[in-house]
Write a structure and sequence with these properties.
The complex is a heterodimer of chains A (145) and B (470). By secondary structure, chain A is α/β, with parallel strands linked by helices. Chain A has two domains: 2-41; 47-142. Chain A has helices spanning 2-8, 11-41, 47-58, 78-91, 118-124, and strands at 66-71, 95-98, 107-111, 127-134, 137-142. In chain A, α3 (47-58) crosses α4. The longest helix of chain A has 31 residues, at 11-41. Chain A starts with a helix and ends with a strand. The chains are: A alpha/beta (145), B mainly alpha (470). At the A-B interface, α1, α2 and α4 of A face α5, α6, α8, α9 and α16 of B.
Chain lengths: 145, 470
């Protein structure tokens, strides 16, 4: 540091400048490693998987449609809310709303986490099964008044 | 690819209008260009997002219409620039920065470049971990971008049926993403919001380093850049695609321009902050208050208000007529709000967490506030810094108070609210707070205009060795 510091700046500035650069690089290297670990673990929300899973439904619904939502997961829980938000994102620009918010005759997305009798699950909510896309994804139509 | 290339238009809009506004110091060469590049992103992204939103609302959000509007804005800026150019060039005595490049400055710039590359790698890895962003990014900002980009579906972005996705939030960031998606054929590629988040982060770094370079030369600029990058919480946030990173750019730009002082453009940028998040509106008003109550600030007040007024008016129109859903904090009535604010135990919890979250902004061995304090101690503080920067420091204090009050007022569980929002709120003001603190330092070397130096050399009759050129 000797001549370098004396020639261009006071010692204290040289020391602080060196420390700032070295410590910042160390902090970033540490974060770089942690970010790599996160990247290896993948998306915790599995959004791309939801987009791929719901893609077949998109062809059945016009882009500006309002679509209802029915699921076996309660949206009051984190898991159910995550499933609802992910489905809403995957279906956008279609507007996904709770099934009660759809007019009679409107379409309702069924998004289920486990196999079951989808027709019966829909009937309990006043919905008629239209199409089963597999993988827990179905499309209903809300009964007309 | 076309979606990403289309971002050149807003950058060009920002570049010509920042230049035409004559907001930047007439001298400074490369340092001014760095600052201008950062400000160009802030202005251009803000203006383009606003233009897109207006076109979407009018049912005209098609790529050719957008391109025509943006090219017209570039051309308009170029015309203003041409008219103002001759006079400005005549008044600009020298293009070079008055600060000399030293060996230490060069070494630190190399260190900053290495740190910036590391930060870029972190952003890439963060995006790789969650290509659609973290939860709020895809559930709020990118979701609404999809609505805005959808043909004839923009109203979905402000529908009251989006109860959990905050339809009352401003649409600035979402509009910019939607705009690029429209150029790209509405393929909703997740690369677009990720790249836009990265550009906002880069622009913030450019504004911080550019402002410090103009003010104190390359050594201080590189140090300031390193101090900002030591805020690993901020670096990690860039890849999350949250709107807090764009907001941090607008806060930083407004603060730097008030220090310049260029209050008119500072007002515009504070107004653009209000189009990004509700906290931006609070910051614009807090800055206004801070300017009004300080002696130095009052000199800038009128021009700041002139810059702010149109965007403030637009924000009010948006809030009252387009997305009138009430913010949950204000649904509970005045009495309940006052009770929350008067609860000392809640304040204790919030203040305790504020200290903890502030400490979590960076690692213990390279905390940005500690590094900034070390720089201030090493360089010393300018005599007039307090007078010149008091209004900015006051604004940060007020903004912190606003953040804490809003956390208290929101009806959600206090601990959950703190856990999910306080770190992001602090990241919004961190870059601006760091740059306003570092603008107080005594520059490492007094600026000596080269013309004066050469004149002195001629006068003394000696041939002086000039410092190396950059």
């Amino acid at each position: 540091m000797g001549n370098f510091a004396q020639d261009v700046m006071p010692n204290r500035i040289a020391a602080v400048s060196t420390a700032v650069a070295v410590l910042t690089a160390a902090a970033l290297l540490n974060l770089f490693d942690r970010a790599g670990e996160q990247a290896r673990q993948g998306d915790p929300y599995a959004i791309q998987r939801q987009i791929d899973r719901l893609r077949p439904v998109l062809q059945e619904l016009p882009p500006s449609a309002r679509v209802g939502y029915l699921s076996d997961l309660d949206t009051a829980d984190t898991r159910g809310l995550l499933a609802f938000d992910a489905a809403r994102y995957a279906l956008a620009p279609r507007l996904l709303v709770p099934a009660a918010g759809v007019d009679p005759g409107g379409r309702v997305l069924g998004n289920f986490s486990a196999p079951r009798d989808f027709s019966e699950a829909g009937a309990r909510a006043g919905l008629t099964l239209q199409k089963d896309f597999g993988n827990g994804v179905v499309l209903y139509r809300k009964a007309a008044r | 690819m076309i979606a990403l290339l289309s971002l050149v238009f807003p950058l060009a809009i920002g570049w010509v209008w920042v230049e035409a506004s004559a907001a930047l110091p007439p001298r400074g060469g490369w340092a001014v260009r760095i600052l201008q590049a950062g400000l160009a992103a802030a202005v251009g992204f803000g203006v383009s997002s606003l233009v897109f939103l207006l076109l979407a609302m009018a049912g005209l959000a098609k790529a050719p219409v957008l391109a025509a509007c943006e090219l017209a804005l570039i051309a308009g800026g170029a015309v203003c620039l041409r008219r103002a150019g001759a006079a400005r060039r005549a008044s600009r005595p020298a293009g070079e920065s008055p600060y000399r490049w030293t060996l230490a400055g060069r070494l630190l710039v190399v260190a900053l470049c290495v740190c910036s590359l590391l930060a870029a790698g972190i952003v890439v890895r963060t995006v790789a971990a969650a290509p659609h962003g973290k939860w709020d990014a895809w559930a709020i900002w990118n979701l609404r971008a999809r609505y805005l980009a959808g043909d004839g579906a923009w109203q979905h972005g402000v529908s009251p049926l989006l109860a959990q996705s905050h339809p009352e939030y401003p649409l600035g960031t979402s509009s910019l993403i939607a705009r690029a998606w429209v150029y790209g054929g509405r393929d909703f590629s997740p690369v677009v919001p990720a790249a836009i988040g990265g550009l906002y982060g880069l622009a913030t770094l450019l504004v911080v380093t550019g402002a410090l370079a103009v003010f104190g030369g390359p050594l201080l600029a590189a140090l300031g850049g390193c101090v900002l990058l030591s805020a690993t919480g901020w670096v990690a946030a860039i890849g999350t695609q949250y709107a807090d990173v764009p907001l941090a750019l607008y806060f930083t730009s407004a603060v730097v321009l008030l220090a310049a002082p260029s209050p008119l453009l500072a007002g515009v940028l504070a107004g653009l902050a209000a189009t990004v998040k509700n906290e931006g509106l609070a910051f614009a008003l807090v800055l206004l208050l801070a300017l009004a109550v300080t002696r130095a600030g009052r000199k800038s007040l009128i021009r700041y208000c002139l810059g702010l007024a149109p965007l403030l008016a637009w924000t009010l129109v948006f809030k009252l007529a387009i997305a009138p859903a009430a913010d949950p904090a204000f649904r509970q009535g005045l009495g309940a709000m006052l009770r929350e604010l008067a609860d000392p135990s809640a304040w204790g919890v919030v203040l305790g967490n504020l200290a903890g979250q502030t400490w979590a902004l960076g690692p213990w061995y390279a905390h940005p506030l500690v590094l900034a304090a070390a720089v201030l101690l090493a360089f010393g503080v300018r005599e007039r810094a307090r007078e010149e920067l008091l209004s900015l420091w006051l604004a940060f204090g007020l903004m912190l108070a606003v953040y804490l009050a809003v956390i208290l007022l929101l009806p959600a569980d206090l601990n959950w609210q703190i856990e999910t929002s306080m770190d992001r709120l602090l990241l919004q003001i961190l870059p601006a707070a760091l740059v306003s603190a570092l603008l107080a330092v005594q520059p490492p070397a007094r600026p000596v205009p080269k013309s004066e130096e050469q004149a002195a050399a001629r006068a003394s009759g000696k041939r002086r060795r000039l410092p190396p050129r950059p």
